[in-house]
Specification:
By secondary structure, this protein is mostly beta strands. It has one helix spanning about 15; strands at about 35-40, 55-60, 65-70, 80, 90-95, 105-110, 115-120, 130-135, 140-145, 160, 165-170, 180-185, 190-195, 205, 210, 220, 225, 230-240, 240-250, 265, 275, 285-290, 295-300, 315, 325, 335-340, 345-350, 365-370, 370-375, 385-390.
């Protein structure tokens, strides 16, 4: 198990330049790669923090926003902005109070502000928070968690569901001490809708946020729990003030199954759900699977050190119907990869990181336009503190 620690149309300068960048790409016949920014963890606002575990989102102002888990003026994380021309600035430095160490993606609310979670800080010091920040940098804590009553350590981002509420997960704590799923109203009122670990077959320790599928139901994964204590895929049907939770699949840690799913699911163009595990498979470095909304499960790919290992982030559905994702390790330098999984079941390593261009990508990529991706790495770069990268898919 890995450590805890849509098409957009925008004219990015690097996306245009990448057309002539193929000669410098990591693979001569592959997509063109471009390093956009190297984090360094200093207090200079232009550094943006260090070691981003999450990916990027695009806000209504046209800029991209993300979080770093360390760095900033207090060295406990930042919210940073990247403009379309690649300029990075720190928007907010987290402090000893009010939440710190964010590791989940930001979510754009219906009011245009950004909402996120911190895995630490808050009213009990280590329980974590939900926060709100607008594009001008005005920051506020919306909710601080209580470990015993609600749960603690929100390690994924938030889902803004069709009912107008936010949903998120808590990795630890709760009434069964195995984490929880919570709902937060736009006014910041939080209620636990499911405490994991109520039975031996229930899931435990959800690391990833939930998604909402086309049927209106919520779907998620737990890193632990289930019949074999190797993690689960679950379905949530919101009902009034609570929810009905159904376990769709319990991982069994076998070569044909996997274990410890720490990433969110994604719905494919066929309506099924796709995800990955961080363990299991022949080399014990993860699997890629398909599961129907009724629970029919099938492993599609076994990750390997040669072409990508230890995926920790959700895949995205590309405009071409393929799935795109990252792995924290694997590739020639064992520094992680960006990969494509096609509708025909083909797997291709699009880029292998090597240290100077980044290392250990832990967040999802974001598609920009018809054939470009942007993403982050947690380590590597000029200062070994992570990077932001661009990848042109014209050579896919």
């Amino acid at each position: 198990m890995v450590s805890l620690t849509a098409s957009l149309h925008v004219s990015l300068r690097w996306a245009v330049a990448a057309v002539g960048f193929a000669a410098a790409a990591h693979a001569a016949d592959g997509p063109a790669f471009n390093s956009l920014h190297s984090f360094n963890g200093g207090t200079d606002p232009s550094t943006g923090g260090a070691q981003p575990f999450a990916g990027l989102v695009r806000a209504p102002d046209g800029n991209f926003y993300g979080t770093s888990q360390v760095g900033g003026s207090n060295d406990v994380g930042t919210v940073y902005r990247m403009t379309p021309d690649g300029t990075v600035t720190t928007v907010h430095s987290f402090g000893p109070t009010g939440g710190n160490t964010p590791v989940g993606n930001l979510t754009v609310g219906s009011d245009g502000a950004l909402y996120g979670t911190t895995s630490a800080g808050g009213r009990c010091g280590f329980c974590g928070t939900v926060f709100k920040i607008d594009t001008e940098g005005r920051y506020s804590v919306v909710h601080g968690f209580s470990a015993a009553a609600e749960g603690a350590t929100p390690s994924g981002g938030l889902l803004l569901a069709n009912d107008g509420n936010f949903y998120g997960t808590l990795f630890y704590g709760g009434t069964n001490r195995n984490g929880a799923l919570f709902r937060m109203t736009p006014a910041g009122e939080v209620k636990v809708v499911h405490a994991f670990g109520a039975s031996a077959a229930d899931g435990a320790s959800p690391r990833a946020p939930v998604i909402q599928a086309s049927d209106g139901k919520l779907y998620g994964t737990t890193a632990l729990g289930g019949v074999f204590s190797a993690g689960t895929v679950y379905q949530v049907t919101p009902a009034g003030g609570g929810a009905t939770v159904r376990i769709l699949h319990s991982f069994d840690a076998s070569d044909l199954d996997g274990y410890a799913p720490v990433a969110a699911l994604v719905q494919g163009s066929d309506g099924a759900l796709y995800g990955n595990t961080s363990g299991g498979g022949i080399e014990n470095v993860g699997t890629l699977y398909r599961i129907s909304r009724q629970g029919a499960f099938r492993k599609l790919h076994t990750f390997s050190y040669a072409t990508g290992a230890l995926p920790a982030a959700a895949m995205i559905l590309g405009s071409d119907g393929a799935l795109y994702g990252t792995t924290q390790s694997g590739g020639p330098a064992f520094s992680g990869t960006v990969f494509r999984f096609g509708t025909d079941g083909s797997y291709r390593m699009l880029h292998a990181f090597g240290g100077p261009d980044g290392s250990a990508p832990s967040g999802p990529v974001l598609q920009v336009g018809a054939d470009s991706l942007i993403g982050t790495t947690t380590l590597g770069g000029d200062n070994s503190a992570g990077t932001i990268f661009g990848l042109s898919l014209s050579g896919r």
